[in-house]
DNA sequence: CAATTGCTTCGATGGAGGTCGAAGGATGAA
DNA sequence: TTCATCCTTCGACCTCCATCGAAGCAATTG
């Protein structure tokens, strides 16, 4: 009937609430077991099993058996990118959930977005780096400056191995809660890993990140407003 | 149950084949009437009317009455971007349609992708500009060089007004048919408009573009391999 | 070897929604 | 006004599929 790839199949996969919850939970970047995903999605293990099988058949997730556990993860960065762009579009179109849970405010403050830092804290980092000339946004694109490279190395991040990969080093990532940009890409992931290693942040339930006392001081010093 | 914008609602809207066809047809950038969309989607006018109402309620399209016609268009560039990224994901995940129509090969050669040039011809332009140092890709980002600015102005494109807009000037757009990048963004749109004005290309059925004799010579001269 | 845990398959149920025929506006043309 | 065209609403049908109970398989534990 029409030409091109069948976009509706992929969209229909994401279009079920239970599957969307599963995919959203996987955006933390961690591999989760089928039982955990069932809990996240609010369905029974049987139902989750069927959904996971569909997502895997559709190429959106990969599964790996380990003992009697089945670990599920997003199939690629591209899937995560598509999900984030859908979240952005949904937020702008006013498709907010009717029920906002108690974790909501904590999520707005600091959360994981495919292994990089998002939320108000992520926006603060982005703004601080941009104002001080470490990052150079050009439209939707984002480049790192020489000053930014020095800063990253001083922060404990080796840029060279990150740049050898095909994935972009810096990427503007649109924050659905703040409607502002935060730092994605390989550098964003490396920075979050560094912050976790330095005990600035601890992972809470789901995608929530909690700021430690040490982190509070560290952010104020390294990323002044 | 979960936090954040409701991604599944938007995805479910795109997830119906008829609606996906409608949205894909609108990616030409033109506003189409309800009857035309019904034809494109392969459903009756009643069904199309219902789908259009849902898409409008979901914020994906805008409608405008003009006489007894109802013109439908994508609501924003962001919707087009999400659709393209979904097309890319679908193509990589192997969700190709079972039936490939006769227009398929023409589409692979040259087509409209949200008002800029895509297909083999679009990739040729992109590669030619990149090799000759007019465009500077950095990861997923894309910048225009000084040489590129001179080239664009000589091609009859005033860059200043384009840069005042918030939308990016250059954007890498992933081609589902060639799996390579072509030039999107404001500059991509301006170049296609210029090519059409110069009678290099004519719009065929749907998103198909046909190369004229004049255009054949023009491409060979302006965008040598 | 049980017993327990984690996942999957099968079958039945129920609901959501896509589809079109028929009829009813709404707009413009003759 | 009358007609034709375009779109919409209503109602009925029907398919698809999400969901869960029950049972079965697989792997670890005692």
Automatic annotation (TrEMBL), chains A, B:
What is this protein identified as?
Answer: ArsR family transcriptional regulator
Classification via PANTHER family? TRANSCRIPTIONAL REGULATOR-RELATED, TRANSCRIPTIONAL REGULATORY PROTEIN
Supply the CDD domains for this chain.
HTH_ARSR (cd00090)
What start and end residues bound the annotated signal peptide?
A: none
Q: Name one Pfam family in it.
A: HTH_20
Source superkingdom: Bacteria
HTH arsR-type domain spans which residues? 1-94
What GO terms in the biological process aspect are recorded for it? response to cadmium ion; response to lead ion
NCBIfam families, alphabetized: HTH_metalloreg
Q: Name one GO molecular function term.
A: lead ion binding
Gene3D superfamilies assigned to the protein according to its UniProt record, in alphabetical order: Winged helix-like DNA-binding domain superfamily/Winged helix DNA-binding domain (1.10.10.10)
